[in-house]
Amino acid sequence: FSFFPLLRLLKKKQPEYLIIHLNTSLPLILLLIFDFKTKFILRISGNPKLNFFRRTLWRLISKKIHIVTTPTHILSEELAKHKIFRVDKLKVLYDPVLFIKDYRKKTTMINKYGKYLIAVGRLTKQKNFKFLINSFENLLQKYNDYSLIILGEGDKKNELIKLINNKKLENKIFLLGYKDNVSEYLMHSYCFVLSSLWEDPGFILIESAMSNTLIFSSDCDTGPKDFLENEKNSFIYKTNNMNSFLTNFENLMRKSEEEKNKIKFLMKKNIKKFTLFNHYKSLEKIIS
Fold first, then answer.
1. What does the alpha-carbon distance between residue 272 and residue 257 come to, in Å, rounded to a whole number?
2. How many CA within 13 A on the CB side of residue 2?
3. What percent of the chain is predicted at pLDDT more than 70?
4. Which of 71, 15, 90 is nearest to 227 (CA)?
5. Could you give the CA distance from residue 100 to residue 94 in angstroms, rounded to a whole number?
């Protein structure tokens, strides 16, 4: 249904640039069939699976595409390995996820949970919350005065509730569903925990840093690896490895308040590139 309306728009309006993101197959097929004055910029995010259709389409349009942008260096390097696009066409363009004014508001949330760790995200396999719950159960053997809060909705919710109930941890692990004021929960937490199997680039990590919250993250593929450094601006453990989780959490707990504050500062300094202004300046440079 969109084929002819988009074709007419490109032929009649002849915009200088068309930035393609998410639903990319239709404009790429048009680019394959027709010649346009418009320069096509392909935005590739996430952890794209190079199936036969995608690989074939990208190869066919690679000469006609003007620029390919990615949100991380890791994804750009991965695409370069497959030699689908010329290396000089691959550009890293960080997502504009930081809006500074949103963090100038003072928190009005009343903390009813005492000392807690927090995890945020859809309740899906990717977020690996089952591993987090099992690991947190082990943490409680030494840190029984802490709780775990998980914010988000998803298809694994009933499975996670059942796991929590079976472990009799209803008074220690709280699934609070979707919340608009995530930053307020982050501000009150002891640290943010990322248990994901993969992320790109991990917007919640950026939000945690802006909320002045310690980050305890898996070394999962793509996004987080691009800007997390163990014990320099965050604490990192091996993905899906409980021993690594427990050992590195212990390392976090042993740090002095001065060391923790320095780590928070370095993380916050590292995420300035995710502001809307920096995104605009980078995009301007790419297309100039």
1. 24
2. 9
3. 95
4. 71
5. 16
